[in-house]
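Table 4 source record.
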Amino acid sequence: MSGTQETIVVDAILFDMDGTLIDSTPGVLKAWQTFASDYGLGDSAAIAHATHGRRLYDTFKEYCKIEDEDKLLAEIDRFEDEVIQGGPAALPGAFDLTSKAGLASHPFTAKRWTIVTSASNKYAPRALERSGIPLPALGMVTSNDVKAGKPNPAPYLKGADLCGIEAQKCLVVEDAISGLMSGRTANALTLAVCTSTSPDILLTGAKPDYIVQDLSK
């Protein structure tokens, strides 16, 4: 996060969504308050922090002990509806960068881009629309598209495949340790944005190749 700017040349950029392109924190915290109350989970803020970047499909099984598939999907819808009501908004630099990411734009140069999110295929397009972030022309990877979520490499391998590019020629842009680990184990380059987690924690926990404060840098 120094004043020196470096051009990163890759064939594709794979963006995380919540915490990287959009700020959904108010809605997420409110939703976890609701679910912590409903399921007797205790400290909702601690749970929100611990589960950041992971699929609700996985965290609801772990924390809420939901095993019934229909109930699990219904509760994901209920949670994500509350997040939408919280008003997700674009983070600094996100709109400008995604508008240019398919072009030769500084500091990134890439032929293609997509979004790889732990959110569902119902929530993701609504959140992007509310935030004013363009939908990727190639489509995107959501929690519904993979059998294993972040930190497993499957989501970012799927994103690279969607772009028609080998993962090692992609740049993963993430704010969560679980997502950065997913990108690293997929053999992609990783860029951490410090929008939700401190630089020290990201550097220690995920060892990204690059780190910036946010996407305006």
